[in-house]
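Purpose: get a first structural picture of the assembly so the mutagenesis plan has something to point at.
Setup: two entries, given in the order below. No constraints added.
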Amino acid sequence: MNHRLDGADAPYWQGLEQGRLLLPRCAHCACWLWPAGHRCASCGGIGMVWEERPLRATLYSWTRTWHRFGFTESLDLPYVSVVAEVEDCGVRLMGRMDDVRNGAGPDNPRIGEALVGRIGETVVGDDRIPTIIWSRAA
Amino acid sequence: MTHPLYGTTAIAGVGLRQFKRGTAPLPERSLLVEAILDACAEAGLDPAEVDGFVSYGDDKNEPVRLMGDLGTRRLSYSAAVWGGGGGGIAGAFGVAAGAILSGQASAVIVFRALAEGASGRMSAAVMAHHLNDHLLAAGLVAPAQMCAIRAQRLFEHHGVDPRIVEDLVRASYHHGRANPEAVAYGEDFDIETLRTSRWIAEPFRLYDCSRENDGAGALLLVSAERTRDLAKPPVYLLGCAQGTEAGWGDLMENDADALYATGGFRPVARDLYAQTGLTPSDIDCVQLYENFDAQGVMSLIDHGFCTVENAAEVIRFDNLIAQGGKLPVNTAGGNLAQGFIHGIGLPIEAVRQLRGESSNPVSGARTCLLAGGPGAPTVSSAIFASQVL
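Result (structure tokens, whole complex):
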């Protein structure tokens, strides 16, 4: 049991552990709810259902970190962090992205470009946190 | 009808102690006590008469612990604005005024104290307030990175020229250069210093970021009526608004698309202008919390001083300086060049500017807008004035 299973977003973390991206929708009006909560403000309904989404997204924004901040010791500098908008649901997730410097396309990520994700992990202290790592879609 | 906050309370004294990070000669709480004593001495008010305290940003100095040093006879009000960042700084004055106007306190100190030994790095404390596994997994662990992602969208998606921040930075250093209390006092700042400084988190380099100081600041708020018996000319609070609205907040980057690349001030600015009946053109100078320069730009846009489209025309060095600019900003140097004690130097400069005591006086300045920490889930702003207009 880890603390990721204590919150309203526990199914998200469980999903990643099992290799799937699960996101919550209102059980009544079916709108996507993120961050995960308890009640849908649109219809007033209580309760969520979790649906699997493919690991496809568009890049919403990004930063490439060069400074060694505490808690990032396991990540090689520089590294790219992104906000990715998951396809067909509008939910934005924070994640990491393979750096595109010296790749085939432009050297920087481009807002609006298509991404594909895979599930990896980020080591923070003794913890291994499941993480979506995005790449530029071919 | 006049809003209840309009000109009914005033700042009667200020105190500021600032040191290079990690070099404060006194413990954090002692620095705070000194700043409070300075504020009371300016006003000519016995510190034992202070009966209220308000802070913000998770300050660690619970007011009850100050009673011994200050000789406090009756502590009748202590409160803090929620939020881990600097977003609450201006809101603290609204909270303090609320206490005074409702008869819960009569002399309230608004304060912030920060010394690395006692409170650790401020950036780490701000982030600890927000950190969760979603952030840790993405390697996003610092305010610089969170603000960088928003700035990237402002520049790349909304098309604001990234160079726009340079005029804001230059104006800050220009003002700091003339301010004996500023970290940049006497320094000639070359913008190449920014352009060639190391990357922190793109698009931010080191000199795009405010750097922390040790110190403490305190401002004494009393009723406008009471200032007549005190030593310094009053600086009135004309209005104050805090918070957020639907579409902005602690949403793990799911803010409304139209708000994402802003500082989060739109509802606050709207309420502040509605309360006071003032507009951006009535504001003579601005004390602008710039945790990062791009967020300062967003804040100026949010408060109606310019738009995304004409930002480059308004945010120009000549226009931002006290000597002849139409929009003088951070006339003591701001968080970048005066020093950064979680922003408490900004309202202190607002007071000094409106008293005519600034190192960079703005000719005829009667009003000053204080914009709190941009990009925080909840933010706040206030307007101060040398007279009730």
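The two ends of chain A are 38 Å apart (CA to CA).
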